[in-house]
Amino acid sequence: GTPRRESAQEVTLEIDGEMVTVTAGTSLMRAAVDAGIKIPKLCATDSLEPFGSCRLCLVEIEGRRGFPASCTTPAENGMKVHTQTPKLQQLRKGVMELYISDHPLDCLTCAASGDCELQEMASVTGLREVRYGQEGANHCQSLKDESNPYFSYDASKCIVCNRCVRACEETQGTFALTISGRGFAARVSAGQDQPFMESECVSCGACVNVCPTASLQEKTVIELGQSEHSAITTCAYCGVGCGFKAE
Length: 247
Ligand code: FES
Fold this sequence. Notes:
By secondary structure, this protein is an alpha+beta fold. The protein is 21% helix and 14% strand. It folds into two domains: 10-84, Ubiquitin-like (UB roll), CATH 3.10.20.740; 95-130 and 137-225, Alpha-Beta Plaits (2-Layer Sandwich). The protein has helices at residues 28-34, 86-101, 117-124, 163-170, 206-210, 219-225, and strands at residues 10-15, 18-23, 60-61, 80-82, 144-145, 151-154, 177-180, 187-190, 216-218. Bound molecules: FE2/S2 (inorganic) cluster. FE2/S2 (inorganic) cluster is lined by residues 41-44, 52-57, 69, 71.
């Protein structure tokens, strides 16, 4: 057929053998989505500005060295990108192994289980075992913040993806959150290491919405997720199971 004419604002590239045309400046990750290809990710979301910290979305580009992050690399005309080579799979598995070695292994009782992106990525990358000790797991375990009536923060489940900090800034225009500490001790903190309620947090929930784990968690979800709160439908008025018990 007639070759497609590209406007100055469009670029055409090949991702895993699929030709895709996107607006110049589009990241490789988003171009891949247009081509029907999902690249593993933890720090990127559909709405936030890319950050490039989790290193899970690495790709290979023919003719280039290294493994750039697809979320921060703009698509260019004529690029040939590979997202699923054995080398990439090995690198991603290695990254996930490090994340899991620094995370509590309480999936069975965790409120986010089944809706946890860390869990999903462990599965997507085929991680079956962690060779490292669990010295880092449960780090910051004592750092739980229940001060906000709507959500809680559990630092031990934080993977420091920075999504919440960016959501606070980008969607709410508030600068209530920051990353503090280094290594195993790195975590999100509100204000000058204050409880959330004493910081500039306005309880908008943007941070909770983007958290990939149960680190920032709506309190109602936590309650609903625990079996001891199972519905009691002894009330004669309705079958919702609000917990009302007729004496
Ligand atoms: Fe690209 Fe995290 S999704 S580095």
